[in-house]
Design goal:
Blueprint (H helix, E strand, L loop, with lengths): L3 E5 L6 H14 L2 E6 L10 H9 L4 E3 L3 H10 L8 H13 L5 H5 L4 E6 L2 E6 L18 H7 L4 H4 L3 E4 L3 H6 L5 E3 L6
Helix pairs in contact: 3-4
Length: about 190
């Protein structure tokens, strides 16, 4: 029997939307596991509520998003890597986030490889460079660029599917079957 999975992403501190999505997944009754592709926090103001909903669940595997990383950077005394209003907002989120969630967030990897129904999948929030840093958003993506970006990456070459959380422009312009975008659902 095939295992059914759900992929969620870009919750961005929206607790009521997350609750609705999780309720729908639970109602399905056939979903064996959930993968969350990052950006649990920031943008929305319900960071603590979102983290409380996700923290204790054992049926979700997480990867870190760029906003999650920005908030962690602030807690570590580093610059968040954002500018202007986004930077100010990241500081606001960090100021209001319950520090009890720091160990949970800091243990989330930026990339994982898993196997589902005999197929290898690699999960990331967005493209990473060789040092595990998020690359800038490519506003003119193509499958050729994706192939070049992941050339020589055994985890990618071995995979059957590769989930990426991508900017809408990328999802609309460039993806082929082996690169599956969740379409930036933003819960």
């Amino acid at each position: 029997m095939q295992t059914k999975i759900a992929v969620i992403t870009d919750i961005h501190g929206n607790s009521s939307a997350l609750k609705a999505v999780l309720t729908g997944i639970e109602r399905d009754g056939e979903i064996g596991h959930i993968y969350c592709l990052g950006d649990l926090i920031a943008i929305g103001h319900e960071t603590n509520e979102v983290l409380e909903q996700l923290y204790s669940r054992k049926d979700i595997t997480f990867v870190m998003g760029n906003h999650d990383e920005a908030i962690l950077n602030i807690f570590e005394g580093k610059e968040p890597g954002s500018n202007d209003d986004e930077r100010n907002h990241h500081y606001w989120i960090a100021e209001h986030m319950d520090p009890k969630f720091l160990p949970f967030l800091s243990e989330i990897p930026k990339s994982i490889t898993s196997e589902v129904n005999g197929k290898k999948i690699r999960l990331v929030h967005y493209h990473l460079d060789g040092t595990d840093q998020f690359l800038p958003i490519d506003h003119n993506p193509s499958s050729i660029k994706l192939e070049e970006l992941y050339k020589g990456d055994e985890a990618i070459l071995d995979r059957d599917r590769y989930f990426l959380e991508l900017a809408l422009e990328e999802a609309e312009k460039a993806l082929e079957e082996k690169y599956i975008s969740n379409g930036c659902g933003h819960c």
